[in-house]
Design a protein that fits this description.
The chain is of the alpha+beta class. It folds into two domains: 2-198 and 331-337, Ribosomal Protein S5, domain 2; 205-327, GHMP kinase, C-terminal domain (Alpha-Beta Plaits), CATH 3.30.70. The protein contains eleven helices and twelve strands. The strands form two sheets. Strands 1, 2, 3, 4, 5, 6, 7 and 12 form an eight-stranded mixed beta sheet that branches. The protein has a four-stranded antiparallel beta sheet with strand order 9-10-8-11. Helix 3 (92-105) crosses helix 4 and helix 4 packs across helix 6. The longest helix is centred in the last third of the chain and has 23 residues, at 229-251. The chain is globular.
Length: 340
């Protein structure tokens, strides 16, 4: 028996633009997904008081179907059919994820998988699915003594994320796998993943849940993809330029520039149509208090990242607007084995 954990993540800058090859700065966060595994004949998921059981053949067959739908969606640049297939049953994501791991590692045996998580599921923007994919991959790999290196764990987790989200950048799983603060750029033949060693801990950031999302990450990404090319491209390019400036600002501890760039990113993301009234309200309240705020991940609700040099002033402004801020640690350790 072994317990593996992986952190969630926050895209500090580069949401959506990272899908189009622009750079992003991504931080692992101090919220973790814990996976405990034991060998079993079948696949058994335990989550609190609930349990689900599937045969190994069932999950492998399910993955084959999902892979075919992904390939079809990739060819058409439209993953709608895949998304409908995946959401037809609540357990489909877990079935797909473990099936992907078994297939990639050539394992034909089962596992009993117990799940605990600090990461709020369904909120969006904090990498719940990526953290699960990373922790699950390492847990099953270790259980069957595959000794998979981090690069292999990251690769398999990315394949899981592709089925879940269609055509993601791979940045979420990279941050959850390697941890810390990373400079990420989608590229060929392999993505650029570089640690950003800024020499100090990021402080005075909080996250806020703006409300449940009405659209999934995949559908939000598809929405941006469907925008007029010229309209989308100018905003995507602006976000890429802002990421490069943010890198310099963080290295120089230039927090005035950090705030301006976060607020600029929120404006561009709102123009791409992925903000909401609640996100806009939180952002305006924080800006009026002298801080900065932006949606996280795909948007459409979910997590908002907020920053102000005076954290108490920031938190009070957010509470006055009717929302609850949550302290968050940025740049934590990546996937790891927990001591029993």
């Amino acid at each position: 028996m072994a317990t593996i954990s992986a952190p969630g993540k926050i895209i500090m800058i580069g949401d959506h633009s990272v899908v189009y090859g622009e750079p992003a700065i991504i931080a692992s966060v101090g919220l973790r997904c814990y996976i405990t595994v034991e060998k079993s004949d079948n696949i058994i998921f335990r989550d609190g008081k609930t349990a689900e059981e599937f045969s190994v053949d069932e999950v492998l067959s399910f993955v084959e179907d999902a892979d075919l739908l992904w390939k079809s969606g990739f060819e058409k640049s439209d993953f709608s059919e895949l998304f409908e297939f995946m959401k037809s049953e609540k357990s489909n994501f877990r079935k797909m994820a473990v099936g992907k791991v078994l297939k990639a590692l050539k394992i034909k045996s089962g596992a009993e998988i117990r799940i605990e998580s600090d990461i709020p599921a369904g909120v969006g923007g904090v990498g719940a699915s990526a953290a699960f994919a990373v922790a699950l991959t390492k847990a099953v790999s270790d259980l069957y003594n595959k000794k998979s290196p981090l690069d292999e764990i990251n690769r398999i987790a990315y394949e899981i994320e592709k089925i879940q989200h269609g055509n993601p950048s791979g940045g979420d799983n990279a941050a959850c796998c390697y941890g810390g603060l990373i400079w990420f750029k989608r590229s060929s033949p392999s993505n650029t993943i570089q640690p950003l060693n800024i020499g100090y801990e990021l402080e005075n950031f909080v996250i806020v849940n703006s409300g449940n999302r009405e659209r999934t990450t995949g559908k939000l990404v598809q929405h941006v993809r469907n925008l007029d090319d010229k309209y989308r491209s100018s905003r995507i390019k602006a976000l890429g330029i802002a990421a490069n400036k943010m890198r310099a600002a963080l290295n120089n501890r230039d927090f005035e520039s950090v705030k301006k760039l976060i607020n600029l990113a929120q404006c561009n993301l709102a123009e791409l149509g992925v903000s909401t009234k609640n996100i806009d309200r939180i952002a305006q309240v924080v800006v009026n208090a002298g801080g900065a705020a932006k949606l996280c991940g795909a948007g459409g609700g979910g997590t908002v990242l907020c920053f102000h040099e005076d954290k108490e002033r920031l938190k009070q402004a957010i509470r006055n607007a009717g929302f609850e801020p949550r302290d968050v640690e940025l740049g934590v350790e990546g996937v790891r084995t927990e001591k029993l």
